[in-house]
Design a protein that fits this description.
Layout (H helix, E strand, L loop, with lengths): L1 H27 L12 H10 L5 H14 L3 H6 L2 H8 L5 H18 L8 H4 L7 H12 L9 H9 L8 H11 L5 H14 L31
Length: 229
């Protein structure tokens, strides 16, 4: 009986998430792509590493000059981290990020024939690359969906929607993957990030402007009958 109830709850959450996705696509369709500027998988990899605990807009402000002066994997691999620091000094954690980017480029050259890998297992072997970064690169640069990129916005939105009760990105990723077909894995990340940036920030909710205000269990606005999940 307990197992049957669990299955029913999972099914109802999946149905609820389908409604959520439909509404968010109508509202944020233009934001269903990465906001990090790049011209190659390697540039996206570098930009995503730099974006950890930093705004994408900040990263985009400083990467053009960096990519102009270091256009190839070999250029980064041949550089000393101290040569990279001035380009990214205004991005948080620039020293550790700069060191990781140089080490990453060297590993790409030595172990991957100067090509960005196309699997999570290989990508996460690179310095500075975790599951989130790997998923961003795979889905946006290669069109490969092995998982879901979970950032702080995704954590906040997933919990407020009642889809999860966890702050663990790995657990949240696994739960969302079970509720969505793989073709939606990239979209859910972009859409939750868009919602989080717009009206559902970690610090404050602006439910009166949210397209989910009448169905979200955390909404401060009640319109008609509340949907329960």
């Amino acid at each position: 009986m307990r197992r049957a109830m669990g299955a029913a709850t999972q099914a109802s959450r999946a149905e609820f998430l389908d409604t959520v996705m439909s509404r968010l696509k109508k509202r944020y369709r233009e934001q269903m792509v990465t906001s990090l500027n790049h011209k190659s998988p390697f540039q996206l990899l570098v930009a995503t590493i730099l974006s950890a605990q930093a705004q994408d807009a900040t990263v985009n402000r400083y990467t053009p000059r960096l990519f102009r002066d270091y256009p190839t994997i070999g250029d980064f691999a041949d550089a000393r981290p101290s040569e990279i620091f001035p380009y990214i000094r205004n991005i948080g954690l620039f020293r550790s990020k700069g060191r990781n980017i140089v080490k990453m480029a060297r590993m790409l050259r030595e172990r991957f024939h100067s090509r960005v890998p196309k699997s999570i297992d290989e990508l996460t072997k690179l310095p500075g690359v975790g599951r989130k970064t790997a998923n961003v690169v795979l889905s946006n640069a290669h069109g490969i969906h092995e998982g879901i990129a979970i950032d702080t916005h995704c954590i906040t939105v997933s919990n407020r929607l009642g889809l999860v009760r966890s702050r663990d990105p790995v657990k949240i990723e696994a739960r969302l993957m079970r509720m969505l077909p793989s073709s939606e894995w990239q979209d859910v990340s972009h859409l939750f990030i868009a919602l989080g940036r717009d009206v559902c920030t970690a610090r404050a909710k602006h439910c009166e402007r949210c397209v989910l205000r009448d169905i979200c269990p955390s909404s401060t606005v009640r319109i008609g009958v509340e949907m329960r999940i």
